[in-house]
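User: For my dataset I need records formatted as: sequence, then structure tokens, nothing else. Please produce one.
Assistant:
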Amino acid sequence: MKNNKIPVEHAPVMPAKSFDDPAKAHAYLVELYVQATQYLRDQFAHVVEHGPTGVRFRAFYPEIRLQTSSYAVVDSRLSFGHVPEPGEYAITITHPELFANYLIQQMKLLIENHNVPIVIKPSDTPIPLHFAMIGEGSVTVPHDGAADFTLRDMFDVPDLATTNDDIVNGVSKPAADGTEPLGVFTAQRVDYSLARLSHYTATDPGHFQNFVLFTNYQFYVSEFEDYARKMLGDPNSGYTSFVSTGNCEITTQDGVLEHPAKLPQMPTYHLKRADGNGITLVNIGVGPSNAKTATDHIAVLRPHAWLMVGHCAGLRNSQRLGDFALAHAYLREDRVLDDDLPAWVPVPALAEVQIALETAVAEVTQLSGFELKRIMRTGTVATVDNRNWELRDNSGPVQRLSQSRAIALDMESATIAANGYRFRVPYGTLLCVSDKPLHGELKLPGMASDFYKTQVSRHLMIGIRSMEILRNMPIERLQSRKLRSFNETAFL
């Protein structure tokens, strides 16, 4: 866009259209997006075959736009589906076919709550060629210097200056034409994350389900696969397929999965339902940086909830290996989100998620009431960024842990909860005590092996059962108003 000396050829101009039917509005979004990306693909193929033409090629993302002049009174119980005040609102859209259910639902609420049509039109935001080529299989965009022409002279490329989290962080400003954001992510930000998800998880974004479990150990994967196969063998389960790393998909209990020679950075597995309300399991590994990376990108898919079901250090002498820790508060010493969400911002527990987790623990363990306290504690979970924190002078850290009333310590949970809070994704944490370093019980090989054999299956089943409870809850109830600020976007 900065090179003004090269003439620009645009994709055919499509008109703006108003809709009061969200399904028809979505169909036009798809039409605009397909036309724009196909234009860029065709021009790229022509340039590769015939060389530069002295013209720059450009196509634009479609956008959803809403204008209202009324302070309409909406249902005060809803945390989304309406704009805060009169004005004009817009958001650019990418891959509308991938987000069909989400977009139709959000547009339907806008039309109903404000009694005005929505407008679908091309935006003034160019589509980078790299993102237009996603899904083209073996066709790749050459890196700078690898082609016989300068790519940036011919096409728009990704621009990190316009790919940011200003909207979710609450620091965005109105666009040049005065419009406010209608959704939490712009098209460029979504495209960026969709590309990164494929890289980190080795599965296509389209396989991700609305309920996401995070873990910090690969031991949970085999248990998840066993459960998935049982569900595929039950015609009444509602699950339709299981997807493993590398997009290997089975639809029957005895289906064969090919296991890759090398796992991706964050191995991911999907137990799918036709409505998208299945369960995705992501092994994020160890550390807050991985936790932030995974949630930064999965958030653009607008999941209904995510939970952490990993291992932790128990901090109380009364805890035993295998006990559960249900987080109702977080001590954030992970540091990776400090620039986006300062540590002084409280990350509240969400009642709906807490109840689902406690109910699931009771169902799976067959304990209830006061007896449940034998195996589960509710309290503060501390998250740190140093795996070997025990080797430091313990006086400072231990004092803070004690003052915060912490019951468990790990390296991921507070990060996942804080990013859930930041991205307006309901979150929760149920950890399993695997060692007690403050009380002389370190995670040694023999202890760990026995622990994993006896506890992984039960812990995973609690996470799955929690997700099933949340799945049966209306999204307007699950989407807590605690996650929304003063002037929120209408879209979740």
